[in-house]
Specification:
It contains twelve helices and 19 strands. It is an alpha/beta fold. It has two domains: about 350 residues, Alkaline Phosphatase, subunit A (3-Layer(aba) Sandwich); about 70 residues, 2-Layer Sandwich (Arylsulfatase, C-terminal domain). The longest helix has 26 residues. The radius of gyration is 21 Å and the shape is globular. The N terminus is likely disordered.
């Protein structure tokens, strides 16, 4: 798969968008991904109990998206969409990649990745934090286009301080196993700060992908962070207080990284997203949307998304356009001065970054998740958004449901019986997408 064609740098972007006044200088790019952050769990997304001053400031100085979606309701598939610009099941990751083969539901295909593309364009590339796209040779970040890696290969940590998963140590500096002391959030921030200094010492632009484990379970904030929350919100139940503290500690860490980025005085685009909705039984707030992580209802898929690029993206802007995590790759390729390959499923978001009120044609977006256990038995759940309509199949053995999101954004009224023709149309379209995904092997380690 060819995801990038080198052009005469920004000349190609100017040809595509003659009205742009964007800088001809390619910016540094910092892409920050939270893990299981709910749509309503930041101050700038309406939270009344979480203090997130650094991300709020990022939104105030940039653009906030109200209808941005993860490509899946769980971790690995969304990360595959970010790295490839494609639907996860079309690149071999329909489900979560895990330690043990009997419970692992993905194998990232040999496709060109975002860091490979940016590397070809002269960017320095670095990955810090959670990888979750493979544990073995060939799947390492250094095999997938990153020149630097300092982080965690696995899915979740069983402990934020010991950093183990199933008693295995997946912490690496490059390819070397390491055993650092400290809370994972603090470690990832400190490593990113040092990398920013290292990368900014070169005249070449850089791409830093910073993926936190927070606020994924176990909900284990640093004790001092929890003490601050409990002192401020003494009536808050412990489960919620711990999650608030973990999110606030991540915001503090992000602020530490952004402070160092600003200190370099280089032109920088910062993008912040989550990988799926918040986990309700861990205390998450998805802003009133239905359900949460692991579900194809809106609460499992809609995520916070912030784009910040001083002088290029209007400060304090907001867009209701629909974006998806697979759109990040074509967007960043264009910003780097290139032309995305036609085989990418995502679309560039540049038009809405420049003009937040620009009209958007109706989009068709597919969601697939494969999973094991007694509920899924290796089968898939799916959803399809087509304009205002949304088809939901949230249990493998359950019925298909139909919602109109414009009329019913909380998905309270199933219209499948009232609109059988619409139901049939979307089911047929979903079937064709599943056939496309079935052409790509997803097993193997």
């Amino acid at each position: 798969m060819t995801g990038f064609r080198l052009s005469l740098a920004v000349l190609a972007a100017i040809c595509c968008y003659p009205q742009t006044a964007w800088s001809a200088e390619r910016p540094d790019i910092v892409l920050i991904v939270a893990d299981d952050l709910g749509w309503g769990d930041l101050g700038c997304y309406g939270s009344n109990d979480i203090l997130s001053p650094n991300l709020d400031e990022l939104a105030e100085g940039g653009q906030r998206w109200t209808q941005f979606y993860a490509n899946c309701c769980v971790c690995s598939p969304t990360r595959a969409s970010i790295m490839t610009g494609c639907y996860p099941d079309r690149v071999g990751v329909p489900g979560v990649i895990r330690t043990h083969a009997h419970n692992s539901w993905g194998k990232l295909a040999a496709v060109e990745t975002l860091p490979q593309v940016l590397g070809h364009a002269g960017y320095q590339t670095a990955c810090v934090g959670k990888w979750h796209l493979g544990l073995t040779a060939g799947d390492h970040p250094l095999d997938r286009g990153f020149q630097h890696f300092h982080g965690f290969l696995g899915d979740m940590m069983d402990d934020y301080f010991s950093h183990l998963r199933h008693d295995d140590n997946y912490m690496r500096l490059g390819r070397t196993e390491i055993n650092p002391a400290g809370h994972a959030t603090e470690l990832f921030a400190n490593w990113s700060v040092r990398l920013v200094d290292q990368l900014a010492a070169s005249s070449d632009p850089y791409f830093l992908y910073l993926a936190f484990n927070a606020p994924h379970t176990p909900i284990q904030p640093p004790p001092a962070a929890l003490a601050r929350v409990q002192a401020r919100l003494p009536e808050t139940p412990l489960r919620r207080a711990k999650l608030i503290a973990l999110i606030e500690d991540m915001d503090r860490a992000i602020g530490q990284v952004l402070e160092r980025v600003r200190a370099t005085q280089r032109e920088t685009l910062v993008v912040f997203v989550s990988d799926n909705g918040g986990q309700l039984n861990a205390g998450a707030n998805n802003g009133g949307l239905r359900d949460g992580k692991q579900s194809n209802y809106e609460g499992g898929l809609r995520i916070p998304a912030i784009f910040h690029w001083p002088g290029q993206i209007a400060a304090g802007s907001q867009t209701d356009a629909i974006g998806v995590t697979m759109d990040l790759m074509p967007t960043l390729i264009e910003i780097a001065g290139g032309t995305p390959g036609e085989e990418l499923d995502g679309q560039s978001l540049q038009p809405w970054l420049r003009d937040s009120q620009r009209q958007q044609p109706p989009r068709e977006i597919y969601y697939v998740r494969r999973e094991g256990g007694q509920r899924y038995v290796g089968l898939t759940i799916e959803a399809l958004r087509s304009g205002d309509w949304k088809l939901v199949h949230n249990v493998p053995t359950g019925p298909f449901e139909l919602y109109n999101l414009r009329q019913d954004p909380l998905e309270q009224h199933d219209l499948a019986k009232q609109h059988p023709d619409q139901l049939r149309r979307l089911m047929n379209a979903l079937m064709l997408h599943i056939q496309r995904g079935g052409q790509v092997p997803w097993q193997g380690r």
